[in-house]
Design a protein that fits this description.
Number of strands: 9
CATH topology: Peptide Deformylase
Distance between the termini: 31 Å
CATH class: Alpha Beta
Radius of gyration: 16 Å
CATH superfamily: Peptide deformylase
Largest sheet: 5 strands, antiparallel
Number of domains: 1
């Protein structure tokens, strides 16, 4: 099934996500569909709110970045009910983009050292300390589960400078090479 990516302005992107239970209907199919959507959209991560589901589910395939960021090599992860703890360290500023914010990229400060606890698609528990760009990617996707977007981490001045592009996304004047769902029109 081709899943559309919900774009900036859609209310689903600002809601808190609920935990996923073992009895969630067709969970393995949803995970497969999310990976397919992510690959078709040329993404490296996708959170369930981005496909209209407010559940704690993330898929990541960071392996295309492995040449530049060795910690990403071979990292394909299904994160069910992840719990994230940002660990101490300096903040690094790097460019981030998002399938829900097409055509935009902004420099975002993040601490690139985290502790992550999660269940995989078979509900097996995992815990790991993750550093570098992979930690940034996990934080970016995790933000979706708590109703945040990467633009919430940029300065008010930067946000004002991209306001026109954000309004274009909200109003449906932004086109994508992948299926999307725009914010509902205000009446």
């Amino acid at each position: 099934m081709k899943l559309p990516v919900y774009l900036y302005g859609h209310p689903v992107l600002r809601k808190l996500s609920e935990p996923v239970g073992k009895d969630y209907p067709d969970l393995s199919q949803l995970i497969d569909d999310m990976y397919a959507c992510m690959y078709e959209s040329d993404g490296i991560g996708l959170a369930a709110p981005q496909i209209g589901r407010n559940i704690k589910l993330i898929v990541i395939d960071a392996s295309p970045l492995g040449e530049d960021f060795p910690e990403c090599a071979g990292r394909r992860m299904t994160l069910v009910n992840p719990e994230l703890e940002v660990l101490d360290g300096p903040k690094e500023v790097r460019a981030e983009g998002c399938l829900s914010l097409p055509g935009l990229s902004e420099n975002v400060p993040r601490t690139e050292h985290i502790r992550l606890r999660w269940l995989d698609g078979d509900f097996q528990p995992h815990e790991e300390e993750i550093s570098g760009f992979l930690a940034r990617l996990v934080q970016h996707e995790y933000d979706h589960l708590i109703g945040k977007l990467y633009i919430d981490h940029i300065s008010p001045i930067r946000k004002q400078l991209i306001k026109g592009k954000l309004n274009n996304i909200i109003s449906g004047r932004t086109r994508c090479d992948y299926p999307v769902k725009y914010a509902p029109k205000k009446k």
